[in-house]
Amino acid sequence: MGIALPVRMTIVRLENGDLLLHSPTPYSAELAKAIEALGRVRHLVAPNIAHWTYIADWQRAYPDATTWAAPGLRDRAQVRTSSVQFDAELGGTAPAEWSDTLDQGMVPAGAGFNEIWFFHRQTRTLVLVDLIENLDPDKLPPVTRLLMQASAATDGTTARYLRLPVRLGGADARKAVRAIVALEPDRVIFAHGQPFDTNGAARLKRAFEWLI
């Protein structure tokens, strides 16, 4: 859409102390040093077409880390012509590498859109990418703010332009979304926009009223 949005990286410490970097932001030595103080970087997750751009720099910094891609991401033209190399593909269940820490699922939709979600059981935190947008209007340029408000992306609900591809997922998408809502998370974190820091379950149900 030609709109620049701030991207948020979510860092998960697994039960064995290793780190999973979800949707990495631009690499810097200073940021890497701060992350290394938390643990060893072992997993880089690029959940969809909009959140893989900075992976290459992180791969160069951590060549022993496993890089995971959302379904279909490796087949995209932009990815094939880049220097990014993916080791494995995410799916509807968590791989053994982090199944003791995170539950994982997928919302299958149309137009090549597949939302991969993560649920941190200990803190009851849900991590999503683009299925809901909760952008802060005060941090958006005026034109972007108007566009995002028109799409409902600043209302803490699913933006209207995301509803069509999800609806194309039909009954499978509705079933997958109901499974997310049933998690009843305390907190919901997005790859961009404001998190639902409290009352996450109720706000999640509101976000999906149009579908379920």
Task: Give your account of this protein's structure.
The chain is of the alpha/beta class and 212 residues long. It has helices at residues 29-36, 55-61, 77-80, 142-150, 160-167, 170-182, 200-207; strands at residues 10-13, 19-22, 41-46, 66-69, 88-89, 102-108, 114-120, 125-128, 187-190. The chain has a five-stranded mixed beta sheet with strand order 1-2-3-4-5, with helices on one face. Strand 3 (41-46), helix 2 and strand 4 (66-69) form a beta-alpha-beta unit. The two termini are 28 Å apart. The model has no long low-confidence stretch (mean pLDDT 91).
Ordered list of secondary-structure elements with their pairings:
Elements: E1 10-13, E2 19-22, H1 29-36, E3 41-46, H2 55-61, E4 66-69, H3 77-80, E5 88-89, E6 102-108, E7 114-120, E8 125-128, H4 142-150, H5 160-167, H6 170-182, E9 187-190, H7 200-207
